[in-house]
Design a protein that fits this description.
alpha/beta, Rossmann fold, Dihydrodipicolinate Reductase, domain 2, 2 domains
Length: about 350
């Protein structure tokens, strides 16, 4: 099987590392606007075949990964389906606007998915197993945080800082989209749209002498349609001690706690009768080293997500662990509601 990739940035590289390690992927056809970046990547990844157009990628691939700025996703999808309606794996969020996301949903080929790769993080695997066994009862409340410090430490301006992204590249769109997906994935329920209360801030407003317009800190609260409440924080301006993935889920009969800072390889499980640490099981055969700036198991989550998506393409049977395009559209709608909140500078 051959897989195509459009894009050559950091997330494209994460997908390339995954595909390089997947035995059933023969070639990766790569097209990037920055041909110099693509040529450098071809040195490091033996499976890469450089393509000179999106058409060439599609004609030689069984599925295509879209790893480009959010506001380009729809036009790239249109270019793909004009050649052949093969499945796509699109980076989140689906687009930079709900209107474009809706158009994306309407023309996306079957078996396409959105890259909510945290679903395939080993820590979330362990939590979903506990949730499924129902020994702790129903979920009452979720408190989730995904924090980075890039807004404080980054020296250059990238596309996610660009106002053309319509607030989809800020902390809310970039990181908060993962957390909103986790809420629905953990609970198996939809988030009540009219329950959302959001606050978006720009804590670091100037970089390279340019005034930034994308939020770098976001909080959202709400409830699911069955009454489970939640509060999330997505930040790119967190202090160093706050950086990481932090999860606290309260059930009728217990709690789960996880922090990539304090217990990166274990969950703290508290029930009415016991308190215990549960080691997070990992598949050492698929281990890919994580970048220093990412949470534990980040690289492996791309491996497992891509492996599952490729199996879905081969079998033609949808896998519920993957986020389908309808899920991506729903998250885009929630982001639209959240980012309509007034900024606090």
């Amino acid at each position: 099987m051959n897989i195509g990739i459009i894009g050559s940035g950091m997330v494209a590289i994460a997908h390339l590392k995954a595909l390089q390690n997947l035995g059933n992927v023969e070639y990766v056809y790569l097209y990037a606007r920055n041909s110099a970046n693509a040529a450098k990547l071809a040195i490091d990844f033996s499976k890469i075949r450089i393509a000179d157009s999106i058409r060439m990628v599609v004609e030689n691939s069984d599925g295509v990964i879209i790893a480009t700025p959010n506001n380009t996703h729809l036009e790239i999808l249109k270019s793909i389906v004009e050649v052949n309606a093969i499945p796509v794996l699109c980076e989140k969020p689906l687009s930079s606007s709900y209107e474009d996301a809706l158009n994306f949903y309407q023309i996306a080929p079957p078996l396409s998915t959105v890259s909510f790769n945290y679903r395939f993080n080993y820590s979330l695997f362990s939590m979903t197993e506990i949730i499924k066994n129902k020994k702790l009862g129903n979920i009452l409340h979720l408190n989730l945080a995904l924090n980075r410090n890039s807004a404080r430490t980054k020296k250059t301006i990238g596309w996610r800082d660009d106002g053309s992204q319509n607030k989809s590249g800020g902390a809310c769109g970039d990181l908060g989209s993962h957390l909103l997906d986790m809420i629905s994935y953990f609970t198996g329920r939809n988030i009540a749209e009219n329950s959302l209360e959001a606050s978006l801030e720009i804590k670091n407003p100037i970089r390279e002498g340019v005034t930034l317009t994308e939020d770098d800190h976001c909080t959202i609260a709400g409830v699911t349609d069955n009454g489970a409440s939640f509060a999330i924080q997505a930040s790119k301006s967190a202090e160093d001690e706050e950086v990481g993935l932090h999860i606290h889920i309260i059930f009728e009969a217990g709690e789960i706690k996880y922090s990539s800072n304090t217990t990166p390889h274990a969950l703290l499980l508290q029930s009415n009768t016991t308190t215990d640490f549960i080691l997070i099981e990992t598949d050492s055969m698929t281990h890919i080293p994580d970048p220093e700036t990412e949470v534990p198991f980040w690289s492996d989550s791309f491996y497992l997500q891509n492996e599952t998506w490729i199996k879905q393409i081969t079998s033609r049977i949808p896998d519920s662990r993957l986020a389908n395009i309808a899920t991506g559209l729903n998250i885009q709608k929630l982001l639209t509601i959240a980012t309509s909140a007034s900024y606090k500078n």
